[in-house]
Amino acid sequence: MQKTPIILAKPPAERGNKAAPTPPVSAGNPTEKPIVLMKSREESKPSATGDGASQAPAASGKAEKEFQRPTQPVYQIQNRGMAPTAPSSNVDPVIGQAKLQPPERMKHAIKLVDDQMNWCDSAMEYLLDQTDVLVIGIIGLQGTGKSTIMSLLSSNTPEEDQRSYVFRAQTQEIKERGGNQTNGIDFFITQERIIFLDTQPILSPAVLDHLINNDRKLPPEYSLPHTYVEMQSLQMTAFLFTVCHAVLLVQDWFTDLNLYRFLQTAEMLKPSTPSPSHESSGGPGSDEGTEYYPNIVFLQNKARREDFCPHNLKKMHMVIDKLMLHSHLKYKGKSRFAL
Q1: What is the pLDDT of residue 102?
Q2: Which residues of 66-77 are buried (b: 16+ CB within 10 A; e: fewer)?
Q3: Rounded to whole angstroms, how far apart are CA atoms 112 and 122?
Q4: Of 24, 162, 247, 325, whose CB count within 10 A is highest?
């Protein structure tokens, strides 16, 4: 029974002076035949006659199809992030992949997380399964100008009316009653694929006052309103430390030691996030690239003229170095401190 395929296949007559060891290879199970070896045999024997010639084109076509498969990478991404049919004009000639469509144009910021720390469904249509974006977040105390700074960085200019800014700033009425404008987290996506995240003020007395005066029910794990406000601020900051490439810390004077203690606490509460392979490095303070930490920029708003003195700037850098000595946040660099 094992010799029957060798007798009926007639391979010696068509292969001419080929040695006999090849028929046992063809007599095996065809599903176990390596595709690459079949293609190499066709290249070495371009001419064939008889039944072998009729089977060669099919085997060659199958071999070429299998051989080309690894050379055509597919960019796995959500369909709404690329062209629906990916015509030839939308294919990158360098990498041979479909070009990503620009994000949907936004006219104003949209709520991402509400004041109860719940995700908002209205933001899901703008968030695509893409990673080629730059995420910038901002934190700071109440009234330091976070929303104004994010609007100027994203799409607005100082000459424009503040009422047309993408992130709404405090109105005069809100300032007079000591309230806050932003609740939760708002986001805005530019056409350059930069996501800006504006947050409500950390440790905000206005949020605490709103909780107390409106008798809002606290979660069962919190017994006091100020504890809830502090934990809410820590959760938002830890979230920014997890998803952002850069975080701006805004303060209108230098400096509040309690703010640095707050940063260190939020850093300890940050969920464990593996660092991408291209960012892994064995440098000092990088923790061998196993844990991701964002870049943090200390931005002093409403700076005075004497703050720009080189001697004062050097003192500010020395204070930050001592306060952030044991931190893994990437605060050292050309833009670690801005005025």
Answers
A1: 74
A2: eeeeeeeeeeeb
A3: 8
A4: 247
Over 90: is that where the pLDDT of 201 sits?
A: yes
Phi, psi for residue 199 in degrees, rounded to 5: -115, 160
Q: Which of 50-59, 123-132, 157-166 has the highest mean pLDDT?
A: 157-166
Q: Are 320 and 307 in contact (CB under 8 A)?
A: no
CB 302 within 8 A of CB 271: no
Residue 181 amino acid letter: Q
What is the pLDDT at residue 232? Answer: 94
| Torsion sign, CA atoms 231, 291, 187, 320 | positive
Q: Which residues contact 122 (CB under 8 A, 6 or more apart)?
A: 110, 111
- Mean pLDDT value of segment 265-270: 94
Asked if 90 and 99 count as a contact pair (C-beta separation under 8 A), the reply is yes
Tell me what the pLDDT averaged over the chain comes to.
76
pLDDT by residue (tens digit) across 31-69?
544 444 444 444 444 444 445 444 444 444 544 444 444
Select from 219, 200, 204 the least CA-distant residue to 112. Answer: 200
- Among candidates 186, 165, 198, 190, which has minimal Cα distance to 103? 190
User: What would the DSSP string read from start to end of 163-217?
Assistant: GG-SSPPPPHHHHHTT--S--SEEEEE-TTSEEEEEEPPTT-HHHHHHHHHTTPP
Question: Any idea what DSSP says for residue 246?
Answer: E
Of the candidates 101, 107, 106, the residue with the CA atom closest to the CA atom of residue 80: 101
In 10 A of CB 174, how many CB atoms?
A: 15
